[in-house]
């Protein structure tokens, strides 16, 4: 029948073969090297000034905030020293209007306000004391630094980093568009709003979520030599890995600890292959790009991450709905309805609106193995107001959603494979047979059923990895990655402040992180 044939034709266009994967891995390696050589390439390969990954423990209470793209998360992380930590966290959705605010101030004032609310709610004592001190000490700046919480600021947009707590925004991604902020130091923007509210908080470190994930997973993964890659598959996608300084050919300005011979590189792989040398490009990818705020940019991310998969799906099913030759989500075709007698779609349904379909529905579709697709049909009803979908319509929806999700997972494998090959760890004789740890974070990889399994399946067919190599690659969720990772980097930064000489901050980081290795299973208090 027509619907089945149309569905098959759409699904086919999302197929991403083993050959495609291998070809893309080669191109990914080429673009990585290009980015290590000079500025202005598609993959930015940004030096992070973090020159090693942790493996031990430290004491102290740190704050961490995370602006990821969808949510703003505020947490405090107490590293107990004896190998344990506690996390308290709150999260709030960033209002859509603020993502395209007129001024940077509007967005950052909102962020500072959330920090204030968090402190009042969870650290009332500290907060009260601070306010009291402010009222009795004549020079607020005189004590502010000493008593302030050190905070790691996870800011997951491309930033030109100039120091551990200084970096200017290169460009917005993930639907944000506040031109006023581009070129400004995002730490200074946040600090200035924090100061306006008189909060006892110092922005001590600027952290990319990928770096936080890498750091957190390095001490979190048991029996590990440290993770080689931290990767995000959330609203957007990106990765950070440990690179040899000898391969970093472009100049690195400012100070860093050169003794390790390594530096963590933030790849900004969301913009891999903006030139479309190898990326797939279906009519729906093209349509999505055209309507996005940044056409021609973040082309890899637009095929992989949570912000976009739902929209690709929406565009594809809209073509089916508009096709006069077939009946899809229409009454005539609903003979097998078991919920209501006729299919109807509410006018306000997200299927009619740009960005109106959340990628979460792909996870529902992928996870529904019931013969009647009752879970998906309920999901369609609940989230998209598509009432009483017929079974065959739900089957078409699922087939297309699954194809989009599978392509995303296989594309994700391209980045992971290329980075692992780039590090040379699989052929390092010292590591013979040992696991290669990759820490991942983000709703997509966390909630999409079998996402990691599909990545693994693709890794097995990559030239230079193969069955044997893939067996050694462990992809683990870096839970609380952004909180613990950012806290660790804030700890490092606080150490750098104390001995401005920058004496042994890496040593401090190493010893500082040791106990945290054992801390994964520790008691946590989360109020997400
Ligand atoms: P952030 O990127 O802000 O750190 P997340 O990692 O939670 O936040 O990612 C949010 C993105 O993940 C959104 O684009 C959302 O559509 C998508 N998402 C949320 N839940 C799911 C799910 N169950 N399956 C697939 N994607 C999801
Ligand atoms: Mg995130």
Automatic annotation (TrEMBL):
Highest taxon above the source species: Eukaryota
UniProt pathway: Carbohydrate degradation; glycolysis; D-glyceraldehyde 3-phosphate and glycerone phosphate from D-glucose: step 1/4
Key words, A-Z: ATP-binding, Glycolysis, Kinase, Nucleotide-binding, Transferase
Gene Ontology, cellular component aspect: cytosol; mitochondrion
InterPro entries per the UniProt record, alphabetical: ATPase_NBD, Hexokinase, Hexokinase_BS, Hexokinase_C, Hexokinase_N
Entry GO MF terms: ATP binding; D-glucose binding; fructokinase activity; glucokinase activity
Record-annotated Hexokinase N-terminal domain positions: 7-219
Ranges where the Hexokinase C-terminal domain occurs: 229-492
GO biological processes: glucose metabolic process; glycolytic process; intracellular glucose homeostasis
Record-linked SUPFAM superfamilies: Actin-like ATPase domain
EC assignment: 2.7.1.-
EC supergroup of this enzyme: transferase
Family: Belongs to the hexokinase family.
Protein name: Phosphotransferase
Source organism of the structure: Chaetomidium leptoderma
């Amino acid at each position: 029948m027509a619907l089945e044939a149309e569905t098959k034709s759409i699904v086919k266009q999302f197929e991403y073969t083993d050959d495609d994967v291998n070809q893309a891995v080669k191109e990914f390696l080429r673009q990585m090297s290009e980015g290590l050589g000079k500025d202005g390439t598609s993959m930015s390969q940004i030096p992070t000034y973090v020159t090693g990954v942790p493996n031990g423990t430290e004491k102290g209470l740190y704050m961490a905030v995370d602006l990821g793209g969808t949510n703003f998360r505020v947490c405090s992380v107490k590293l107990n020293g004896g190998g344990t930590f506690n996390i308290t966290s709150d999260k709030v959705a960033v209002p859509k209007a603020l993502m395209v605010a007129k001024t940077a101030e509007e967005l950052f004032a909102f962020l500072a306000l959330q920090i204030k609310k968090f402190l009042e709610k969870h650290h009332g004592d500290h907060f009260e004391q601070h306010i009291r001190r402010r009222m009795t000490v004549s020079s607020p700046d005189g004590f502010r630094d000493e008593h302030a919480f050190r905070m790691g600021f996870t800011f997951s947009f491309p930033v030109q980093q100039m120091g551990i707590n200084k970096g200017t925004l290169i460009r917005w991604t993930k639907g944000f568009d506040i031109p006023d902020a581009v070129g400004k130091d995002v730490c200074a923007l946040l600090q200035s709003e924090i100061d306006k509210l008189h909060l006892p908080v110092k922005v001590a470190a600027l952290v990319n979520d990928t770096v936080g994930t890498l750091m957190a997973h390095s001490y979190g993964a048991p029996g590990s030599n440290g993770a080689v890659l931290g990767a995000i598959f959330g609203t957007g996608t990106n990765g950070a890995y440990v690179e040899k300084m000898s391969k970093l050919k472009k100049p690195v300005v400012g100070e860093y600890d050169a003794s390790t011979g390594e530096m963590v590189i933030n790849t900004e792989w969301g913009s891999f292959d903006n030139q479309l040398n190898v990326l797939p490009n279906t009519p729906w990818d093209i349509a999505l790009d055209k309507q996005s705020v940044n056409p021609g940019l973040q082309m890899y991310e637009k095929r992989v991450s949570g912000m976009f998969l739902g929209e690709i799906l929406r565009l594809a099913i809209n073509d089916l709905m508009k096709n006069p030759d077939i009946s899809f989500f229409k009454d005539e075709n609903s003979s097998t309805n078991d919920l209501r007698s006729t299919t109807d779609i509410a006018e306000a349904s997200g299927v009619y609106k740009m960005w109106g379909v959340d990628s979460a529905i792909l996870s529902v579709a992928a996870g529904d193995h019931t013969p009647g697709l009752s879970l998906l049909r309920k999901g369609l009803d609940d989230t998209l107001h598509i009432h009483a979908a017929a079974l065959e319509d739900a089957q078409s929806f699922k087939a297309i959603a699954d194809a989009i999700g599978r392509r995303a997972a296989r594309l994700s494998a391209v980045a992971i494979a290329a980075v692992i090959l780039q590090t040379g760890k699989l052929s390092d004789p010292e590591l013979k047979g040992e696991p290669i740890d990759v820490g991942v974070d983000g709703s997509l990889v966390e909630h999409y059923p079998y996402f990691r399994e599909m990545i693994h399946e693709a890794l097995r067919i990559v030239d230079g990895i193969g069955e044997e190599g893939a067996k050694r690659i462990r992809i683990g969720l870096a839970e609380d990655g952004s909180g613990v990772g950012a806290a660790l980097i804030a700890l490092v930064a606080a150490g750098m402040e104390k001995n401005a000489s920058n004496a042994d901050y890496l040593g401090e980081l190493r010893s500082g992180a040791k106990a945290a290795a054992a801390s994964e299973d520790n008691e946590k208090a989360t109020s997400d």
